[in-house]
Prior knowledge:
By secondary structure, the protein is mainly α. It has a domain at 87-138. It is built from five helices and no strands. The chain is elongated. The relative contact order is 0.05.
Amino acid sequence: MSQAAKSGTPPMEGYRPTIPASVPAAAATPGALGTNEVSISNPGSDSEIDKGKEVRANPNGEAPAAAPATAPAAENAAKTPDPNTAAKQASMSPAEQKREYQKALKQQQDAVKKAQSDRKKKEQQQALAVKEQKKKTKAKQDEQKQEDKQPQPPAPTGGQATTTPPAKQ
């Protein structure tokens, strides 16, 4: 504030910088370039952009070369994208890209459901195997208890030493 003017009348208009000589005359005058109009459309409807052909991918208007169909392994498909995907997507209209995205999403969801059902089946098989093993173990333990409960023949006392093996049932 100490550098502000202390005398005289204050300026009544704001500071307007000068336009350099290197700027073309058309750009120097505001409003000479035209109007900037923006239109709004419903996001769910098909617009002219979605219906039209994608012109950014091929400036010459030539059809893209067909990519050779390759089927990558199911495990690698999720990890590494198809190298031709970018070129394919560039030649698609936005509506086609949306359909392809929905198709890929559906495939992923189906794969997840299949993996979940496979996991449940495997868990059921493991539970069944554990149950079978427990039955076998219990049967062996019951057999061992049966053998332990059988009375042992009395030890011979003097005389002849004849031993007869116990009869198994």
